[in-house]
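ugh ok so i messed up the first submission bc i forgot one of the chains. this is the corrected input, ALL of the components this time, i swear. 486 residues overall. if the numbers dont match what u have on ur side tell me asap before i send this to the collaborators (the ones from the other lab, u know who)
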Amino acid sequence: MNAPALSLRGDLFMGDAPLIRDLALEMPAGGWSCLLGPSGVGKSTLGRLVAGLAGTQRLAGALAASDGVPLAGRVAMMAQEGQLLPWAGLVHNVTIGAHLRGERADAARARQLLADVGLAGMEGRRPASLSGGQRQRVVLARTLMEDCPVVVLDEPFSALDAATRLMMQDLAEKLLKGRTVILITHDPLEALRLADRAWLLGPEGAEALALPDASPPRSYAHPATLDMQARLLARLQAVEPA
Amino acid sequence: MMAVLRGILALGFALALWQSVVWASGVPGFILPGPWRVAQSLWGNMAMLTEHARFTALNLLTGLSAGVALGVITALNLALSPGARMLLRPLLIFAQAMPVFALAPVITLWLGYGAPSKIVMVALVVYFPVTSAFFDGLMRLPPAYQDMAALLRATPLRRLFLLQVPHALPALASGLRLAVVYAPFAVVIGEWVGSSRGLGYLMLMANGRGQTDLMFAALMMLAALSLTLFSFFEAAVRRFSIQP
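and heres the new structure output, hopefully the right one now
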């Protein structure tokens, strides 16, 4: 997979109101870029911008991929609420993209991906009979099924309990290897565990964060990680959304 | 089992109340017949009542099916085409503000005393609630699913049938519930305005001749018809576990 690096520069607006000024994000090819910030700062808006979703967000500046090819059609997204179809089985949920485009759905590959995310043997279940963590596994499989070089994760694990969240972080790190991932999160530990690069977002811009030396996924128990987490939590409390 | 017992109990109470009003007021039978006289009339005129009920039920079901089918097709087209929305939406709102029942005389004038005028009447009455409820449901796809459809580059037609229609089924069920309740009104009004058959016609005729017990018997048949229709509808909604 030839995942491009992304460069996002300029001022982010919501309608006419400025959200974040002077953005200068250089997101590495095939790596994890984490956008950390408190609620309301404009993280998700940034995610919608990268994904090319409809909305009043506007970038006065430039968003470009390093290969010069437009991003449209090359971005997959995974959000907190996975938007599974409650009336459909897991294979149909994973292949919904092909169904919606009118393409042939590769059910064998969907089954393989469901097995990869640890749901082998549960293909016949409906989303309602799954736990929150299992549902996000299905969404992860759907995201992988789309096979896009760029993946936006918008707080995909924030509704999960702490232990499940750590497990899902490891799984996502493993399965999304080689793709350019933009992880939007308000959880400093999540950013510290997974990021190749991370920024703290505030109205005045994005501040690049120092990260522990180990390579992701980093241990949550390492003293350096814990120390940075404590300092980041203090910083997050000080950020005022625009 | 308990539900059946409760039903019988409630029915018994209603009949007792009815009979005691008849006794207490002392009104003559041709003004308010007691339940026993109505039952006798129902039994004695069963063949004739069934014949008229069949005519009414057939028109009711035909009109209901036609109205529902047209309503569903209209809503799907409105959801797909912004042009159709621009042209038809104001018309739809106007039509909802107009009491369709008031059209009954004109429809009878145009289509005559036979079945077609009743079928059209029912279809018209059913059409608007079904169209607007289903259309509203189709347009209310949750934003997160709209995003999903955009990201997955869904074609408009597949977005409609794979995401919007399943999400709109509860709204459609609400529209159908109104349709099922209104349809018997519509068919009876159609028959009142002009008909030579049907339960509505029979009620008018019996009323005019002072055969109040027959009038009530026809009313009972009509109530049974409406209740059957409504129970079938409720059972279908439960069967497909659609919650309006």
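quick check: Chain A has two domains: 1-74+152-164+182-242, 79-147. that seems consistent at least. The longest strand of chain A covers residues 17-27.
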